[in-house]
Amino acid sequence: MAVVPYKDQNDDKKSQVATMFNNIADKYDFLNHFLSAGIDIIWRKKAVSLLAPEKPKQVLDIATGTADFAIETLRLNPDKIVGVDISEGMLAVGREKLIKKGLTNKIELKYGDSENLPFGDNTFDAITVAFGVRNFENLKKGLSEMNRVLKPGGTAVVLEFSKPRSFPMKQLYQFYFKNILPVVGKIVSKDNAAYTYLPESVQAFPDGKDFISIFEEVGFKNTKWHSLTFGISSIYTGKK
Ligand SMILES: C[S@@+](CC[C@H](N)C(=O)[O-])C[C@H]1O[C@@H](n2cnc3c(N)ncnc32)[C@H](O)[C@@H]1O
């Protein structure tokens, strides 16, 4: 059974995820930085730095949300970054941010489903996705689509939560993730489910070697796994 945000509803995971992110879009950036004490910013920087040697010119940021990862990727001086997402609410917050920062000529945000990407084969030099793959309805389909639109020799970088496994970080993290984060998240976002879905979806998501096996199964090569901050997050890279 897929982990979904609103268990009392019959909609599929994709519609529920889009609804949830539409509901929390205005508070998403604040909660992200507040609940992670700003560490998410460091994780995105690290993920982008792994792409630096590739000097990608055409970049696709999947599940771009409010465009933080796309904006960070500008450091690599690409010609163009396209960000896609299924939540119009998140994209609207992202577009406002781009206008304020004067970045609309470099980053384009558009509606797009990772499981059916609106691009031809072999289009991008690099593909990034931060905290997105866990939300896909069909993980293998989403990763296969990433592989399809990546140019041969191009690199995909996936940043996602994982599960710390050693004492005492495992216990501290579980306490925080299950008892504190859902309460603060609910009060600030006013969405009853979003910050309960977060720990539940992380718990159910394949991490580490399990993720790497699926990544390779859909065609990625030279895969690498970098564990961050005691294993709370991981970066996975792979080449086409
Ligand atoms: C946790 S947010 C991450 C946003 C951004 N990448 C970041 O680093 O802050 C997850 C995003 O994934 C998007 N998403 C979930 N499933 C998707 C899909 N199938 N295709 C595209 N975007 C999707 C959600 O709408 C949401 O904006």
UniProtKB/TrEMBL annotation:
Keywords, alphabetical = Menaquinone biosynthesis, Methyltransferase, S-adenosyl-L-methionine, Transferase
According to its UniProt record, this protein's enzyme class is: transferase
SUPFAM superfamilies attached to this UniProt entry = S-adenosyl-L-methionine-dependent methyltransferases
The family note in this entry says: Belongs to the class I-like SAM-binding methyltransferase superfamily. MenG/UbiE family.
Q: What does this protein do?
A: Methyltransferase required for the conversion of demethylmenaquinol (DMKH2) to menaquinol (MKH2).
UniProt catalytic activity: a 2-demethylmenaquinol + S-adenosyl-L-methionine = a menaquinol + S-adenosyl-L-homocysteine + H(+)
Q: Does the keyword Membrane apply?
A: no
Top-down, what is the taxonomic lineage of the species of origin? Bacteria, Pseudomonadati, Bacteroidota, Cytophagia, Cytophagales
- Give GO MF terms, alphabetically: 2-methoxy-6-polyprenyl-1,4-benzoquinol methyltransferase activity; demethylmenaquinone methyltransferase activity
For this protein, the record's Gene3D superfamilies field holds:
Vaccinia Virus protein VP39
Output the PROSITE patterns linked to this UniProt entry.
SAM_MT_UBIE (PS51608), UBIE_1 (PS01183), UBIE_2 (PS01184)
Which NCBIfam families does the annotation name? MenG_MenH_UbiE, PRK00216.1-5
Per its UniProt record, what Pfam families does this chain match?
Ubie_methyltran (PF01209)
Q: What is this protein called?
A: Demethylmenaquinone methyltransferase
Q: Give EC number(s), comma-separated.
A: 2.1.1.163
One of the GO biological process terms:
methylation
